[in-house]
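Comment thread on ticket #2218

A.B. wrote:
> Attaching the input chain for the structure job we discussed in standup.
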Amino acid sequence: MNYIEDIDLINKIKINNDSLALKQLEARHSGICHQIIRKYYKNLIDFGLDPEEIAQEKMLIIYKSAINFNLEKNTKFSTWVGNQMRYHCLNCMNKKANTIAMDNESIKSAIEKKQIYDHDKTLDLKERSEEVLSILDKMKDSRIKGIFKQRYFNGRKLTPWHIIGKLNNLSTQTVINLHNKGRNFLKKKLTKGKYIDTI
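C.D. wrote:
> Ran it. Output below, let me know if you need it in another format.
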């Protein structure tokens, strides 16, 4: 019966662009969208994306899913919505991958690598950390250095974006955006021949 009702709602959306039908469809299938986002949560964060912002797009995903749903394919609408949400997450990460040359582990990895050299001398971890922070000191926005300190130099594990946001009274996405600026700045400085290992 629920599946028949879904089809009725879908037809109302297709024929009349019925907003009430869309809200009812969203209420039924938001769960599958959130389930997919939870599945890709860490991946989205690693690509500098905010899962909460992705989640806010679920209404649009469900709307597009309804418009494109084909009953003849013998697929449940919940399965169709789940697939569309999954494709959306993957597409967002693919687009981000084209603009980001380093993943979130790369900076920490580069800092901690044992084979980073400066004038043929191996730097210890403390010196490498100081070098990275010294480079970030040259940026106009002092928040960026603070974000890097909290992210990479506050224990062995990476500090989650949302915690850094709370510490700095910033949204998660703002923290990620500032981090990405710092990362791009670091990449330019650290790949000009000073370090043998590239980031």
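A.B. wrote:
> Thanks. Noting for the ticket: The chain has eleven helices and two strands.
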